[in-house]
Amino acid sequence: MQRFRTCKRLLDLRPDFELARRQLIAALLKSGRLAEATKLCEESIAALPDSAELHFYRSDLYLHAGEKALAIESCRRALALKPCIARGSAELVAALARH
Q1: How many CB atoms lie within 10 A of CB 87?
Q2: Which contacts qualify for 44-53: CB closer than 8 Å, 24 or more apart?
Q3: Residue 93 confidence (pLDDT)
Q4: For the chain, which ranges sit under pLDDT 50?
Q5: Looking at residue 86, what DSSP letter applies?
Q6: Where are the domains of the chain?
Q7: What is the CATH number of domain 2-97?
Q8: What is the pLDDT of residues 79-89, one digit of tens each?
Q9: pTM, whole model, 2 decimals?
């Protein structure tokens, strides 16, 4: 709960603070709030469209929602923006490769 408040406070102060956005998305997902995490991720991508990390987060959210085609599309966008992003997220890439 503290993590939510801290991230939200940071975003109130600096809406462009990508790390706070990603941490809040991860915290929402971890607490089972997939719809909220997805909404925040979509809003974040609209604000920061060239963030490979946010596209990769969205790919993970889509995978959790069972939206495999959208997950693959978002993963491809992340990789196009930052090819080396897959190194740190081998688990997600492997999961997408199986589908």
Answers
A1: 8
A2: 44/18, 47/15, 47/16, 48/16, 48/18, 48/21, 50/81, 51/18, 51/81, 52/77, 52/78, 52/79, 52/81, 52/82, 52/85, 53/18, 53/22, 53/78, 53/82, 53/85
A3: 64
A4: none
A5: G
A6: 2-97
A7: 1.25.40.10
A8: 889 887 766 56
A9: 0.81
